[in-house]
Amino acid sequence: MSGAKDKEFRLEIVWQKVTPELAQEVAAFWAQEKALPQAGVAARRAQQVAVVCRAAQGGQIIGVSTVVKMTVPRLLNNVVYYYRHFVAAEHRQKHIGTTLVQTTRDHLNQRFVSGEDRSAQGFYTVTESRILQKARRQGVSPAGTFMGVDKNGDHLRIAWFDGATFKH
User: Fold this and answer.
1) Which end of the chain has fewer beta carbons closer than 10 Å to its terminal beta carbon, N or C?
2) Measured between alpha carbons, how far is 168 from 132 in angstroms, rounded to an integer?
């Protein structure tokens, strides 16, 4: 799957297919980018990778998205995927983050709609980057519908899957 008109990168959907080799490659990518300051987090989070973005030339990882199921008290205890992504610093102006969000959502939504996996009703994001918060001001975006901010001032969004029903 291509992610850019000029084919600068390619995407691989790896949700629930992360090999030990890919997990090591992702952990090395995060270490190189100094993305995960907490010790021991990379090995666990690498198992949550949903989509890998690779440079078209060379094939090195330049971005990843991760998801993990969680119950969100602010959403009436509905089960959703907590979504994260990280893009290498030198590739952040290429809309890779938006492409990762859309590709991950589309894949998980398709699994939900088809009945393959209806255990989560949508996905939830927390935007920590002040740059992205300023750039993404619309109420509804590929990352979901704006719900407000948390105690840190980070933006909270939810994207429900097609046909999702929620507890109340």
Assistant:
1) C
2) 32
